[in-house]
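During the practical work, I selected for study one protein's amino acid sequence and its backbone structure tokens, as given directly below:
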Amino acid sequence: MNAPGSELGVIGAAIVAMSDTLTLHPVTLAEAKAYIERHHRHHPAPVGHRFSIGVADQDAVVRGVIVVGRPVARHYDDGLTAEVTRCCTDGTRNAPSILYGAAWRAAKALGYRRLITYTRADESGASLRGAGWTVIAQLSARPGWSCASRPRVDTTEHGVQRTLWEMTT
């Protein structure tokens, strides 16, 4: 039976202690996607991943997930760089910072040398700064992913300036 307010249910014995009130646990892509579809403000769930991590409270209610995959920009896809493609929480204090820190530790343990992510201009990046990430670029708004040589149907919001963040070894 699901705990009140939990979309993913109660987490079992595989919880890894992170703080007095929040704990980390592995989640499947299907679980992460379901959580993101219910909670993310402006993007749909990513299609794939390398790994995903969840964070739960003391009652084992899932409070957020992070999804790490291949870099979306092909020039970053060098085999040693991964990208946080979604971080989504219900607003629980410190949950995003805990997830970003855990994603970097996991990526590093898997042999990645660099982990990147983007924030929108209307997002402060406080959780990334709290987890030790560094801003490496301010990117201008792009009109979308579709172009003459590779037409696509856009499924997300465009025209937003972005900030590129990284963690490196």
